[in-house]
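Quick question, first post here. What does this chain look like in 3D?
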Amino acid sequence: MIIAVDAMGGDHGASAVCPGVVEACNKNSDLEIALIGDKTVIEPYLDKADSSVRSRIRVVHTDEVVDPNESPAKAIRCKKRSSMRIAMEMVRSGEAKGCVSSGSTGAIVAGGVLVVGRLKGIDRPGLGILLPTKKPVFLLDAGATVRCKPLNLVQFSLMGSVYMKDVEKLSSSPRVCLLSNGSEEIKGDDVIVAARERLRASDDLNFGGYVEANRVPMGDADVVVCDGFSGNVMLKSFEGLIKFCKELVKETIQESWLAKAGALLLYPSMKRLGARVDYQRYGGSALMGVNGAVIKAHGRSKAPAIANAIGVAYSFVARNALERIREDIAQELEKVAAEETLC
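> Answer (accepted):
Ran it through. Tokens below.
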């Protein structure tokens, strides 16, 4: 399996991506990587890799990079030799089964639509990511489509349900809920209410109504659906709260010798807890609704997070998620789209 990886994206560029690629190849013996970026920058980071790993990493040279401050659509259209665009073109041509980048979210979404292309029947793509909650919760959309129509939320619900069922192998039918400002039916704006009524009428979903943000960490829903603005705010709030709690624990431990002694006894448990809520463990967001496995890694990703993002792409492909989305929801999406046209 070949995965194309943008070596030049993110805050750390090749210094994080290259070790992450090596780590991913160590985990999966049938994984091959097309590492795209400046060859002179990339190759020194690969020198110490085991020969069995190095033989599975092919460097595709380009010195053109998408800058995070550029207009996303313009950068994708004009920078045809950028590392991000080449990775996506490899997916479109079938040379690679999927691609991973920690570059600009806007550019990745634009590239997913303009280069890889949308799935038939999908109006807008959505970024889906697993949240570090009590049990796995798939949030969709985490930032791709900022303003949504009811149709978009219905499609996100269908794709999120397929992802949790087929990629995450949830044993029961995924419970899908709309993020809202209350659990009562009188809550929600016009878009949320219209989406709720459509989802309630669907035979293909285990629709659970509304879920409030304070219940998401408790796992009240398996799939949480919202527009990209709300989802991105929720995701960043999670990250900020986790960081705050970690710092608060460290400060509290330093307050007395008794606390320090207790911390030593609790260290193994605290280490496991820290790993459980570490965003790097979850790797990347899948751009749902495009015709390939396109994974957005966090901009601050270091090597472990890059390796895990590649792991998300690997699982997405190995478990035939794209094919299952096409097969499981094609008829429902066509029905919903037809209803939208008549409205």
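The first strand starts at residue 2 and ends at 6.
The chain has a mean pLDDT of 86.
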